Structures are given as C-alpha cells and as structure tokens.
Amino acid sequence: MIRHVVIFKAKENAPLEEFKKRIEKGEDSKKVLEIGSGSGEQLKAFKRLGYKVLGVEPSKVLANLANKNGIKTVCGFFN
Q1: DSSP annotation string for 1-60
Q2: Between the CA of residue 14 and those of 8, 9, 52, 74, what are the distances in Å?
Q3: Which residues partner with 74 through β-bridges?
Q4: Rounded CA gap, 79 and 52, in Å?
Q5: Over the stretch 24-55, which tens digit does the pLDDT of each residue have?
C-alpha cells in the first residue's frame, strides 16, 4: 500500500539534496523508486542513508551493473 508519494524532477546532480529538503519537511517514505536509474549511482546514495531502493532501467548493461553493485534494478520499461 502506498501511503504517500514524493515526485520531483531532478536538476543535474541535485536529487539527493532535493530529497533531503523534502525529508526535512516530513515527506519521507523511506523508499525510493527511480525510473531510468542507469547504473544506480543516485540510488546508491539513498541506500547509504538507509532507504529501500529500486531502479527501473531499460538498458540491460546498466541494469546488470547496478545489480552487481548491490542496487536492485529491474530491466525494462515503466509503462
């Protein structure tokens, strides 16, 4: 069951800082889903902060790389 969702568009390398601001406002769900997660670099930062993370990435190469680095990533498109 989804209680609340925080959706935002990241500006270059600012997703973590933007998310921290939202946490301070009480918009924290402790779970992060990233669509188009690439190699999982952004999700890795959230995971270090204690979040449960999941990536969705259409590139098999990048999805495999993320999974090898401990970031659970589904290879496919988000429809």
Answers
A1: -----------TT-HHHHHHHHHHTT---SEEEEET-TTSHHHHHHHHTT-EEEEEES-H
A2: 11, 9, 19, 23
A3: 56
A4: 22
A5: 666 556 888 888 999 999 999 889 988 899 99
The pLDDT tens digits of the residues spanning 16-25 come to: 676 667 666 6
Does an H or E element contain 74, and which? strand 73-75
The pTM (predicted TM-score) of the whole model is: 0.69
The radius of gyration of the chain's CA atoms, rounded to the nearest angstrom, is: 12
Q: Which of 22, 24, 20 is nearest to 48 (CA)?
A: 20
- The DSSP H or E segment spanning 77 is none
Between 77 and 13, residue with greater pLDDT: 77
What's the full length of the chain, in residues?
79
Tokens of 33: 């889903």
